[in-house]
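Q: Could you write out the predicted structure for this multi-component system? I'm mainly interested in how the pieces pack against one another.
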Amino acid sequence: MKLYCLSGHPTLPCNVLKFKSTTIMLDCGLDMTSTLNFLPLPLVQSPRLSKLPGLVLKDGSTFLDKELKECSGHVFVDSVPEFCLPETELLDLSTVDVILISNYHCMMALPYITEYTGFTGTVYATEPTVQIGRLLMEELVNSIERVPKAQSASMWKNKEVQRLLPAPLKDAVEVSMWRKCYTMPEVNAALSKIQLVGYSQKIELFGAVQVTPLSSGYALGSSNWIIQSHYEKVSYVSGSSLLTTHPQPMDQASLKNSDVLILTGLTQIPTANPDGMVGEFCSNLAMTVRNGGNVLVPCYPSGVIYDLLECLYQYIDSAGLSNVPFYFISPVANSSLEFSQIFAEWLCHNKQTKVYLPEPPFPHAELIQTNKLKHYPSIHGDFSNDFKQPCVIFTGHPSLRFGDVVHFMELWGKSSLNTVIFTEPDFSYLDALAPYQPLAMKCVYCPIDTRLNFIQVSKLLKEVQPLHVVCPEQYTQPPPSQSHRTDLMIDCQPPPMSYRRAEVLTLPYKRRYEKIEIMPELADSLVPLEIKPGISLATVSAMLHTKDNKHVLQLPPKPPQPPTSKKRKRVSDDVPECKPLKPLLSGSIPVDQFVQTLEKHGFSDVKVEDTAKGHIVLLQEAETLIQIEEDSTHIICDNDEPLRVKLRDLVLKFLQKF
Amino acid sequence: MLDVVYCFILIEGQLVTEIPKSSSGHHKDAAEQTPSRLERRFPDFSYITQNGRLTDFLDCVIISHFHLDHCGALPYFSEMVGYDGPIYMTHPTKAICPILLEDYRKITVDKKGETNFFTSQMIKDCMKKVVAVHLHQTVQVDEELEIKAYYAGHVLGAAMFQIKVGCESVVYTGDYNMTPDRHLGAAWIDKCRPDLLITESTYATTIRDSKRCRERDFLKKVHETVERGGKVLIPVFALGRAQELCILLETFWERMNLKAPIYFSTGLTEKANHYYKLFITWTNQKIRKTFVQRNMFEFKHIKAFDRAFADNPGPMVVFATPGMLHAGQSLQIFRKWAGNEKNMVIMPGYCVQGTVGHKILSGQRKLEMEGRQILEVKMQVEYMSFSAHADAKGIMQLIRQAEPRNVLLVHGEAKKMEFLKQKIEQEFHVNCYMPANGETTTIFTNPSIPVDISLGLLKRETAIDAKKPKLMHGTLIMKDNSFRLVSPEQALKELGLAEHQLRFTCRVHIQDPRKEHETVLRVYNHLKGVLKDYSVQHLPDGSITVESILIQATAHLEDQGTKVLLVSWTYQDEELGSYLTSLLKKGLPQSTS
């Protein structure tokens, strides 16, 4: 059992597990932090961005000034943003049999894998994961494609050139592997390879392995996966939550008795309490609006936004915000809001109960009905007519590099009345803001990450007791910025095995048994013999059939009747066909009784001699001797087959067969 | 137990009892209670166990869908007879079932004054025992028993269930539909090869004409009536067919730009549409795909009905409950409109004997109403089968999909079932049963026995060519309840026993005047020629091995022209050893080169 680690990002994992002749990819997360090195893509020509000075290297050379721009001491690539893909060279990805997706954030690299590597397998994911994953991809493609950028910078990627650049560009890894965004046809092709699955559904892979998604409590349709055979169990835990938000609670019990537990997707902000952050979010929002300012919330079109809207639903009246318009701008805003209402089966108990009434599970339906929340595909069209300030706008992308958020950063950045509130934990907010500096607007950081924290992890591990834990190396040491916090790492016994990007781990496990089925006819023919109290044995001689990795034992075919024709046979016709199968023997032969038996069968001239280790029985007339020792019997005779067979059968009477 | 009205009990994979809802044979389709069936409203659950609690006797109860002929007795069963174990149903069924039960209770108790019926509180308490299941989710009921739901089409949330213990399994279909309709998809099951498939057989002999034709017919009739200024009454059950027909009419109205109003009788129906909106993932592919742009269950042309509208002049179409014209709003409207030959009533489903629906469908045109009133029916009466059951073709198709070893037919009429049974036995060569009410069917299964085989033994046997069947030899160790198949060596070792080696050495005399090593070479060449598939080796010490059999040559003590070959083998090589001696005894071929 081997684990190929293709991503170094602990919350956007991409691992390949080789297990019992199957090759299983676990998630294909796309590391988008690379986009922070690029200039934002404004919807309308931004004078500020276009006037940024080109980079002048320390030696005064300016050959990169078309590709790289400087803004407030940071250097940015002026090009279409690019993403850091999972490793594609560590193993041949066309050999991947299946891809298991755990949640919609962890499938963003799927088109790169399924469309560029010769992949011919199947992808498994739950229905909400696929639907919302499609929305995320659609939004991504849309927000990049609608702002065509003439220039595609590549000179800076040259290794010699990159060395000369200031940090962080100098240290960016695998820049030659960075890729532009995929297209919608590629997204559609990738998604068409997905087969939908439900929680606790057992999916057979080639008869060798069974995979099962379990509710992970983190997002709509998010799952952990069990990968098991009859004797081994690997649990893949990715993006799980124990907090009560909208999704179905996490299924912990099914993770028990794992041989190996692969642990990824823990909270990225282990020191922040999500509940406290939501409170801060609301109060900052209210304060800004009361002071006449606008609030910008850079966010993904699905996920935490549902919870934020629900909090606001309860909060706005009491906070006196009933007249403030809330806008949700995304090419997929409408779809996201609609989809959230139809996945009753994937929601927490409270929301399910609402559907049974029947009422929409999320209160944003009411916000929309009462016109408090309005959604638009983009800032063009209807929005520009309805737009009133002060207001609250939810829009993407949280990296602040593309999407409608870029427009509002430019529009509102100059006024200190306005506030941008960061709720998504995937990007460092300071890095995200860098190309907008200097900035007058207030910036509030309320990252809401509901995934497991280290206290919850250690409790979980105590509860499910895996034999081995495998995790990204980041989880085995305190965060670099808080090196004294030894509580911010995984603590378990035995210590976890850690992996980093492009590493191959050999997972510890020993396989001893396999399942085989004995057909009823064969079972009927077996003769069990009680050897010791409570233990019975039966010798089995049977035909082994192996099909689709399943093994079956059947009655051996009856020996064919010897041909009756008198035709002269060639010598070789008689050669025994298959290897003869004779049982092993055990026991010992009591010489006295053996001699008596020989005499009973007509051997009159039996003579016994003692030797150092046993006896020699002599049949003088037949010139035959039988050496009998504790653990062996040796019959030495002339070539007299009937005699030999007779002696053999007499000997066998005293022995047990296995 | 599967469905509380059509009630089957499974004990360890064997179908033991079937308890039909009433004594009048197998019933069809969904329906509210009708007078003839009131005497025995609920199944006789004492069939299950005479003494002792149901909870101790049943592992679980499975409800396939929300129609009252499948769940109508559930609160009676769990709260009045007493059952506290788990009850499984899908999410939509769990959502809709209590509403129908409450409706049923209201009609029976409040309107008809029945006593000894379950109360609202009982419905609530009963629903608390319900565990909702996802499609394809494997639910572990207890250590041995697991169940799995498959999509059945029939109505929103309808499911077929696979019930499995070890490697034995039963599939219970409930009601299902093998062709997708306007709002639901087709039933689907994988090749799960159950020991027994229990299938409904409502349309055992019917092969219905194509859906499109029926739809066109329906639209044509409605359109013609409306064109000539008539009113169309469509008695429906609140959930299911009603939504399909609404979608049909809605799209037709839009396309033809028709103005005549369409009404939906109040109560359940608006709510029903809500359920369809929220459980849109259970509808068909097309509706699911387009629901963001347009939710098919938000109707533009179909408005809520008010009692007063029935007297409005001009054409209109009204969907009204209940579906068999035996009570309520549909009957009221029918009485108002029956006298006018311009009007039309379309019965889109089956009607139980004794109902007004059944009477007019069988051609009766003078009906005796309450108070000896005679109602003359002049309006046109049409029957259109829209009820979503699998037809004969569909049932055969499901059997082909699932590949069961036995089939059991229920939920149909005996004569038609007999025909289908023969067809199934002919085409699939499996046993097919159709037990009468109260009859017990015993089906014998012959399961294979799963054992653990040591990987060493398995690899030894599959190392060469995994695909080809081959003879293997092992020892089965049975201890407590575990079965392990290991190599004989390992079995000996585990039991602490030593192997006893049995060896034979045979002297074979052959005439050959040559030197010993030349004789050996001749023997070697001879064996090599005959035993092509065996490893024959000539060792440096002058001996020959065939596999593990050793052959040495010595000169005869007295006769130099005779050589003695010593052939030595163990009991495990018995056949080859025995064969070699007989082969050598025949002497060596003359020609040696």
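A: Regarding packing and overall arrangement: Chain A has three domains: 2-30+85-152+176-270+451-506, 274-445, 585-657.
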